[in-house]
Design a protein that fits this description.
Layout: H1 12-20, H2 23-49, E1 73-88, E2 91-95, E3 100-105, E4 114-115, E5 120-124, H3 127-164, H4 172-178, H5 181-206, E6 209-211, E7 216-221, E8 228-229, E9 234-240, E10 243-250, E11 270-274, E12 281-293, E13 300-307, E14 322-336
Antiparallel strand pairs: 1-10, 1-14, 2-9, 3-5, 3-8, 4-7, 5-6, 7-9, 10-13, 11-12, 11-14, 12-13
Helix pairs in contact: 3-5
Amino acid sequence: MNRGLRPRPPSGASMAEARRCPLWVRILRVVLPIVILAAGALGARYYIQNKPTAKKGQAKKTVQLVEVLTVSRGPARVVLPVMGTVIPARSLDLKAQVSGRVEWMDPALDSGGALSRGEVILRLDPADHRLAVQTREAALAKAKADLELELGHQQVARRELEIVASGVDEAMEETALALRQPQLQKIKAEVAQAETALAQARLDLERTTVRAPFDALVLERFVDIGSEVGSRERLASLVGRNEFRIQASVPTGWLAWMDIPGQGADTGSPAVVSAKPRSGEWKATVFRLLPGVEDNGRMARVLLTVPDPFGGPDGALLLDDFVRVRIVGRELTDVAVLPRKALRDG
């Protein structure tokens, strides 16, 4: 008997339900999908056959707005922009010339303090040095007294020599001995030595008072009140405050465009210094060309001097600051000068 699968005949309930549906509903169920498919096919065919195309036309010309400048020819100076570092023009490690205990210090003798040339900034205890002066004064007084005594002996010896002289010429050596010449020379040498020792003692006493050697700024102080210092010991580190210098790196080919003292010019080229982002400018002058070139970049090194770096209206120029420098070089004749904004790459 064949056990294959056969279609299952519709049940009586399904056939009865189909008979109950109206005829138009059954027709709609068959026709509607066919209509939708046909409409989609016709729409696709229409869009394929009638796809939009771009219209060709003439390109419109774009007018570029420009600014017209009138350029005149004449003389102009070359401006050389370089970078540099601010360094001190004068620097000094202030040292004690005598030993002693720090007795007093000027409050300005501290980091950032301003000192004026010749003003007293530190004192060492002078007691030991005053005693040394008194000792040397006593030694000198004794030496002078010995000299006076020896001069008296000289007079006595001269009279005695005149009395015993019998008219016979004596040897010069015996005459000198009789007049005590060696003793007199010895005493005079002792007086001179005592005078020198006293002068040194007075100088040491004077050196217990330390004065500022020039108008300076204090970078660092190494002692305090009560410190025991020895001769040649550092007291403070100072830099001059009336002038700074800038060491700038310059391409070697630019040296021909600037005036450098000692390099064919009596005065250096002027320059303007700025320290961004701070505002303000300082005037400078090319001062010297340093020997040799930098290890990195093979650039020449030029020194510029900046007078009064703290007295300008734009504030202080700071040491070790990295600054921009515009050096005004030599004059060119019959050239056209264009503003920088008018230049474009390419």
